[in-house]
């Protein structure tokens, strides 16, 4: 066999080998599915235990939060709740007074709420003429918004009778939206209020929040637009640029 033919055969064999190697290196469906599955698992872990998003649809937290605000919620602070249980993975801090929290409310399973934590376990909480008192001292609340609505009672507030301070006569106790208490907050429970006090359905009505129901602390606004605008494409034309990446506190 001539030297030229030998070189030609070696070249063809080499090209065939290279093609086989390239063919072997190409990932198959199995590898693609594994990568996709790993990405999905990572996303679920991130959303369940680290970060969550939330969208404001009511004015109960105005002016701190507006309808059309999109929020990033830090679940890692309190530790994300394990799905379908009351258990949490360990967080790196406990909720504190003044925190704006997202939680699973006790009176409904249909949605999540966002309110401000104002009452801690063991404290005496009351409201007199719209002023909130903690252990007998008025609480400084620069974030609160009040409207002109007159004070009124509500049958939902009847739950308060079970948590009244010892000196309060339960037989004559008649709470209203702006005057109630003093209440004693039990262990592992919080009292939540909306900043827009006359327009908020909160702990005054549906009761105390069990600690295990807290899902995370609101960190910042990542997008905002005037959702109540009648202009077409409001999510583009009515962006609130000054609110994007604002912290919430």
What is the CATH fold-level name?
Umud Fragment, subunit A
Give the SSE string.
HHEEEEEEEEEHEEH
Overall mean pLDDT score? 86
Strand coverage percent: 15-25%
Q: Helix tally? A: 4
Task: Describe the protein in words.
This protein is of the alpha+beta class and 249 residues long. It has a single domain (47-243), classed as Umud Fragment, subunit A (Ribbon). It contains four helices and eleven strands. The strands form two sheets. Strands 1-2-11-3-4-9-10 form a seven-stranded antiparallel sheet. The protein is globular. The model is unreliable at 15-23 (pLDDT under 50).
Please give the structural blueprint.
Elements: H1 3-25, H2 29-49, E1 51-55, E2 69-74, E3 100-103, E4 113-119, E5 124-128, E6 131-134, E7 137-138, E8 180-184, E9 189-193, H3 203-206, E10 209-210, E11 214-224, H4 234-237
Antiparallel strand pairs: 1-2, 2-11, 3-4, 3-11, 4-9, 5-6, 5-8, 6-7, 9-10
Give a brief outline of the structure.
This protein has a seven-stranded antiparallel beta sheet with strand order 1-2-11-3-4-9-10. It has a four-stranded antiparallel beta sheet with strand order 7-6-5-8, with no helix packed on it. By secondary structure, it is an alpha+beta fold.
């Amino acid at each position: 066999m001539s030297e030229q033919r030998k070189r030609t055969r070696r070249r063809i064999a080499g090209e065939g080998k290279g093609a086989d190697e390239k063919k072997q290196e190409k990932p198959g469906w199995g590898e693609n599915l594994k990568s996709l599955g790993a990405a999905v698992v990572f996303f679920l872990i991130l959303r369940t235990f680290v970060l969550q998003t939330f969208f404001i649809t009511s004015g109960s937290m105005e002016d701190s939060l507006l309808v059309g605000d999109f929020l990033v919620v830090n679940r890692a602070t309190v530790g994300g709740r394990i799905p379908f249980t009351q258990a949490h993975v360990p967080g790196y801090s406990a909720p504190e007074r003044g925190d704006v929290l997202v939680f699973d409310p006790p009176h409904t399973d249909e949605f999540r709420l966002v309110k401000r934590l104002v009452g801690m376990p063991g404290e005496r909480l009351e409201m007199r003429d719209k002023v909130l008192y903690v252990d007998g001292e008025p609480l400084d609340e620069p974030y609160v918004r009040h409207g002109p609505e007159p004070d009124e009672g509500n049958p939902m507030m009847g739950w308060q009778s079970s948590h009244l301070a010892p000196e309060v006569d339960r037989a004559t106790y008649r709470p209203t939206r702006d005057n109630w208490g003093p209440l004693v907050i039990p262990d592992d429970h919080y009292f939540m209020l909306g900043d827009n006090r006359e327009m908020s359905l909160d702990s005054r009505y549906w009761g105390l929040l069990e600690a295990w129901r807290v899902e995370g602390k609101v960190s910042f606004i990542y997008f905002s637009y005037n959702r109540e605008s009648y202009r077409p494409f409001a999510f583009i034309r009515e962006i609130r640029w000054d609110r994007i990446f604002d912290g919430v506190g």
